[in-house]
Amino acid sequence: MNAGRSVASGLARARQRIDVADAALLMQHVLGRGPAWLYAHGDVALAPEAEARFEALVARREAGEPVAYLLGRRGFWSLDLAVTPDTLIPRPETELLVEQALARLDPALALRVADLGTGSGAIALAIASERPEARLVATDRSEAALAVARANAAGLGLGERVEFRAGDWFAPLDGERFDLVASNPPYIAEGDPHLEQGDLRHEPPAALASGRDGLDAIRSIVEAAPAHLVPGGWLLLEHGHDQGPPVRALLAAAGFVDVVTVVDLEGRDRVGAGRRPGGGTEGVPKGGW
């Protein structure tokens, strides 16, 4: 980029190479300004250092790196979270899992919640932000991901409410029982061509793929979950759009009741849920889902 180029001309050139919205986000990041400022100050000249930084980010985005990793941030629920290549990028569809968890958690009770495979901490922190009385434990086998999650919790003032533990799924929770367990585990089939496309190429493979049919992690979680749930406790799992029937079958085979598949805003199967029998919370939450 030539020295002295304006904000508008820099954006115009970038838009020939990458998505319009991505170009704007990268320029906002470089300048530390919001979208309204960019719109009103398109004729402002870019400092050489800012031009160089913007050009470098555009080149990396053009090569396929996710915008979230370039910015180091991603919005999820009502939270602004740090993300790195060590964590899965939180996605809007996972907010349905949070909604379903909140529907089953009485805000007046000090309920215990586990988030398995927490990554950046998105699910656990979103639940903690909405249920002040709840106490959460979040697990992940990646120490690097846990470092990001702990930093996010501290930055949001939730560090005292969410405990992070290293280990695979339930391994760090031996002997403990919870009112609700939630997880967004890997559920893409190994060898799926989507793993070589878009942002997925740059995300942690272990957070994406799980066995020939994508269900290995879900099988492990469902099998172990009854020993970690109180009577009446819920297990909630995000899964792929074509995995509703097999996930329901796995939950039913493990003895869960009130088994249901919840669809997302596009009408696709997205969250599987089942309740451990017993307890005083029979049936679906008040108001359904």
Structural features, described:
Its EC number is 2.1.1.297. This is Release factor glutamine methyltransferase. Belongs to the protein N5-glutamine methyltransferase family. PrmC subfamily. Keywords: Methyltransferase, S-adenosyl-L-methionine, Transferase. It catalyses: L-glutaminyl-[peptide chain release factor] + S-adenosyl-L-methionine = N(5)-methyl-L-glutaminyl-[peptide chain release factor] + S-adenosyl-L-homocysteine + H(+). The chain is α/β, with parallel strands linked by helices. It folds into two domains: 57 residues; 203 residues, Vaccinia Virus protein VP39 (Rossmann fold, 3-Layer(aba) Sandwich), CATH 3.40.50. Helices cover 34% and strands 19% of the residues. The chain contains ten helices and nine strands. The strands form two sheets. Strands 5-4-3-6-7-9-8 form a seven-stranded mixed beta sheet, sandwiched between helices. Helix 9 links the parallel strand 6 and strand 7. Helix 1 runs antiparallel to helix 2, helix 2 packs antiparallel against helix 4 and helix 6 packs parallel to helix 7. The mean pLDDT is 91.
